[in-house]
Every structure is written in C-alpha cells, then in structure tokens.
UniProtKB/TrEMBL annotation:
Residues 229-253 are annotated as: Disordered. Belongs to the short-chain dehydrogenases/reductases (SDR) family. The keyword Nucleotide-binding does not apply. It comes from the Bacteria. Residues 229-239 have a biased composition (Polar residues). The keyword Oxidoreductase applies. InterPro entries: NAD(P)-bd_dom_sf (IPR036291), SDR_fam (IPR002347). This is Short-chain dehydrogenase/reductase.
C-alpha cells in the first residue's frame, strides 16, 4: 500500500514493486491520476481514494480496508506549499506529511504484518520542531522551514513507532527513506512562485523518479534493523546507491519523539493500537 502513488516517486515505487510480482494498492487523492498510474503497472494493482489533508478521509480509508497489509509506504507529501490549512485546520506540511500518515499508520497497524516505510528527506537536517507552535501560527510563515519540520517529524515518528513496536513484541518494522533529489512534481504542488523557481533550479541536478524510488524500495525490502534510515550513497546524499545513513541529532532525540507522538495522538484522536509491555 503506497500513499501518493499516482505520480512521482510513489508511482515509480509502485512500478518497481509490481514488477517484483507484488499486489500494489495505490492510495491517492486524485482517482483519475491513480487509475492512469495503475494502468501502466506490470502487475496487479488497485486504486483507492485517500486525502491525507482530511482526517475523515483517512479514517474512511482505513475502515474500508478489509485485509492484511504486508507493507505500508507513507510516501505522499507536499513541499513549498502556501499556508492554506488542511480540512482539520493544520499547517499543510505538518498536517499532510506527518499527521495524515501518523493517523493512517495507527489505524491500519493491527492489519500490518511486515513493515512501515515513511519517506522523509535530507531537508530534515534543517528542521526544528516547535511543539508549542507546530502549525506556525505565531511566527512568519516560511514554506521551506515548514517542510523541513515535517520531514524531521517523519523521522521522529519512525523512531518512536519502532520503539513502541518493539515494546509490544510486534515483529513489524518501521524504517525511513530519503529519496535524494528527484525530478518529480512535488516542488510544484503548492503552485507558489518560490516552488516554481526552486524546481527549475534543482531539476537539472536531479535524478529520475526511478532513481528517487530506490531508497524507498531498499527500505521496504532489504534485511534491515528497525528505525533504519536509507539515503542515496553519494557525498551529498542527493543521488547514488541506497545505504544506511545517520539522521540529524534532532531526529535521534527520544524525548522529542515521545512528545511529538503524544501531541500527534491528541491532534488526530488516534493512538498506538497494540498493547505495550509493563514499563514501556
């Protein structure tokens, strides 16, 4: 199951896994785009609507899913988006990139049997997380800072999810991936002038969608310990063969991860559904 699989890295990830004979579920906001992507896949695929900017859509999606899920890939996201709030009033980067996936994962977790992969980014290294103002209502809105915060949140979520999975005795793994620079439509999602200029500048330096998907596929299929972070192996981590890398110091802060988890539970009205051992 791959969120945002109608285009970009999500579509390339779906294509790679379908070519390996996986049955792929494309969880997409735009059904027409999802169906077009599914029609181009070499194996079995189905399309279901999921809008991560609307928690009611997340709940409906999870409630309607009747089967086990071997692999959940939290891939969808926005970058350089204007500050238009989500349906639930969240800042769009934090709401879509983090909170939507947080809720989806917890709601589906009783059915997940293998692995949860969350797509972060090298930009998380510039991120700071203000738990008193995660929606950036009390400071000037800077799209890249909001994006970087959400990508940091993705890694903190992965770390705390793995801690909880281990404490519950679950064999499910949580890993994260950094796609590096890839020529996708992510930067133009918000439609801002800054996004268009940034996209134009970075596109000549970027790898293909398929290149960007390699770290996600590796995080999904390689023999890895939980909470592994996979990035391109090049010097700048913008391209190259996938390898295990170390995220920023902030992304490795267990107390920050726990506080973010508690805040995310209150914002989404979802909780970790598996029983934890005493003292965990």
């Amino acid at each position: 199951m791959i969120t945002g699989a109608g285009s970009g890295i999500g579509r390339a990830t779906a294509r790679t896994l379908a070519a390996r004979h996986a049955r792929v579920v494309l969880a997409v906001r735009d059904l027409d785009r999802g169906r077009a992507a599914a029609a181009d896949l070499p194996g079995r695929a189905e399309v279901r609507r999921l809008d991560l900017a609307d928690l009611s859509s997340v709940r409906a999606f999870a409630a309607a899913w009747p089967e086990p899920v071997d692999l959940l890939i939290n891939n969808a996201g926005v970058m350089m988006s204007p500050p238009d709030p989500t349906v639930d009033g969240f800042e769009p980067h934090f709401g879509i990139n983090h909170l939507g996936h947080f809720a989806l994962t917890n709601l589906l977790l009783p059915q997940i049997t293998g692995r949860v992969v969350t797509v972060s980014a090298g930009g998380h290294q510039a991120g700071t997380l203000d738990l008193d103002d995660p929606h950036r209502r009390n400071r000037p809105y800077r799209p890249f800072a909001a994006y970087a915060q959400s990508k940091l949140a993705n890694l903190l979520f992965t770390a705390e999810l793995q801690r909880r999975l281990t404490a519950s005795g679950s064999a499910v793994l949580a890993t994260a991936a950094n796609p590096g620079l890839a020529a996708t439509n992510l930067l133009s999602h918000g439609g801002s002038r800054a996004a268009r200029w940034t996209n134009a500048l970075l596109r000549p330096l970027s790898q293909t969608e398929e290149g960007g998907a390699r770290t996600t596929v590796y995080a999904a299929t390689a023999d890895l310990p939980g909470n592994s972070y996979i990035s391109p192996g090049g010097v700048t981590q913008s391209r190259g063969r996938p390898k295990v890398t170390t995220p920023s110091k902030a992304a490795r802060d267990p107390e920050l991860a726990r506080h973010l988890w508690n805040l995310s539970e209150s914002m989404t009205a979802t909780t970790f559904p598996l029983p934890l051992r005493s003292g965990s």
